[in-house]
Design brief:
alpha+beta, 3-stranded antiparallel beta sheet, 10 helices, 64% helix, 18% strand, elongated
């Protein structure tokens, strides 16, 4: 059974090595570029920005006049037996009428309380808000890619550690069997070394699966359709730290945090809403001008005159051209207090928008402070776990020498081996947590930009 396990392990190692050689290299920068290009949410927010940019125009705000064209075609028919007009010299006739009336009309709002200008300012703020939403989506995507990338590095390092331990366990099995042949080890010792090897083989296979899952998650985060695509990650999982000053971070946060900037823009939009509502208290002055043309055709035909004679009166065609220019003033004298209530409600929304800003500033300041404290704490944890790994590695080397010299048994050696695994895992988790905290800290101060 052990021989079969060794064969399977060797086969898996070869497959893993061959696959690694065929992999394409991928840096963190490249992963971010791919993710930003493929992310659907970014594409959606960019389309919304494009709509806002096209809407930010004076014509949408109502600055320019509108020109409309009309065409009316009216037709009528009157039977002779339905016509009875004693005052007319025509007693009976069939009458066909036709009227074509094209017209062109221009409408232009000359004044409406400054609402055109305010509407244009509001469209500009809506465009800025759409740009801010794109940046928020970009920040979230970059953060997800960074964390997914480092998660793969962590799991890849875990695979390496498991492979290293498995190799040592395999050597211990061979060594124990050799000692048994010379009568220096009992069957119990061989069984214990074999159990350790089997357990390490199981852990190695589980870790390989975890690593594959991390790769699939990275592909999903980057928006790659082929989730089984593999890479050779070129960035290293290293312990590199930077010292941050709390006041500097808070200053940057107030100036560049994208969500906070969006709240500022939203406050401006609400204030412009109030100015729009206040504009309804002013009269609206409009200009209406245009031209109309009428072409009338009346076909009478054979008619009975008052004298009793019948005569063909034929038809009559007339046309006329008219122009007009009109000014109108509209002012709402009384609306049961609707305008006043709308203005009051809009001013309340201004207060709400400002309260949202103050609440977010308080919360984000606390987040920055807590995240920085966690970051500084995790720097110390990484330093401690680095020392822990060094000690565990030295202990494992010493235990290996003592085991071969017969000074320690298989149980003691296994304990030292597991301590080494746990120490490496603690170090990797500490580094990953440090990277996660640092990424979150940079995002809070608006540092994750395209």
């Amino acid at each position: 059974m052990i021989t079969m396990i060794k064969f399977c392990f060797t086969l898996l190692s070869l497959l893993f090595l061959i696959t690694a050689i065929a992999q394409e290299s991928l840096s963190l920068t490249q992963a971010i570029e791919i993710g930003l290009k493929n992310n659907y949410q970014i594409q959606i927010s960019e389309r919304e920005l494009e709509i806002a940019q096209k809407s930010n125009d004076w014509s949408i705000a109502g600055r320019y006049p509108s020109l409309d064209a009309f065409l009316n075609l009216n037709n009528g028919y009157s039977r002779a037996d339905n016509t009875n007009n004693p005052a007319s010299f025509v007693r009976q006739s069939n009458l066909v009428t036709s009227n074509i009336a094209p017209a062109v009309e221009l409408n232009w709002t000359l004044f409406n309380g400054g609402r055109v200008r305010v509407t244009k300012q509001q469209l500009e703020e809506l465009e800025r808000l759409s740009q801010g939403n794109v940046q928020v989506t970009v920040e979230n995507t970059i953060e997800d890619i960074i964390l997914a990338y480092y998660q793969v590095l962590v799991q890849q390092e875990q695979v390496r550690v498991r492979e290293e331990v498995l190799k040592l366990s395999r050597e211990r099995v061979d060594y124990t069997i050799a000692r048994q042949e010379f009568g220096q080890a009992a069957t119990f010792d061989v069984l214990q070394s074999q159990d350790a090897y089997i357990n390490d083989s199981t852990s190695y296979l589980i870790q390989l699966n975890t690593f594959e899952n991390a790769l699939r998650s990275l592909n999903l985060t980057m928006g790659v359709d082929d989730l089984s695509r593999r890479y050779q990650l070129t960035d290293q999982l290293q312990f590199t730290t930077q010292d941050y000053a709390l006041e500097d971070l808070k200053t940057r946060m107030l100036a560049t945090n994208r969500t906070l900037q969006n709240l500022f823009i939203n406050r401006e939009i609400v204030q412009l809403d109030t100015r729009l509502v206040e504009g309804t208290e002013y009269p609206t002055i409009g200009l209406r001008t245009g031209a109309t043309y009428g072409l009338n055709s009346n076909l009478v035909g054979t008619s009975t005159l008052a004298s009793g004679d019948e005569r063909d009166l034929g038809g009559v065609r007339t046309n006329n051209l008219g122009t007009f220019i009109n000014f109108g003033i509209t002012y709402n004298i009384f609306d049961w207090g609707v305008r006043r209530r709308n203005i009051e409600n809009s001013r309340i929304r201004e207060i709400t928008a400002q309260l949202n800003i103050e609440d977010y500033k308080r919360n984000i300041s606390a987040d920055v402070e807590n995240t920085l404290a966690t970051y500084n704490n995790q720097k110390q944890l990484v330093q401690i776990t680095n020392q822990l790994v060094e000690n565990a590695r030295r202990s494992l080397t010493i235990a290996e020498d003592r085991f071969e010299a017969g000074l320690v048994n298989i149980f003691d050696y296994r304990t030292v081996q597991l301590s080494y695994i746990n120490a490496v895992q603690s170090r990797l988790n500490a580094i990953y947590n440090l990277k996660t905290t640092e990424t979150n800290l940079i995002r809070l101060v608006g540092g994750l930009i395209r």
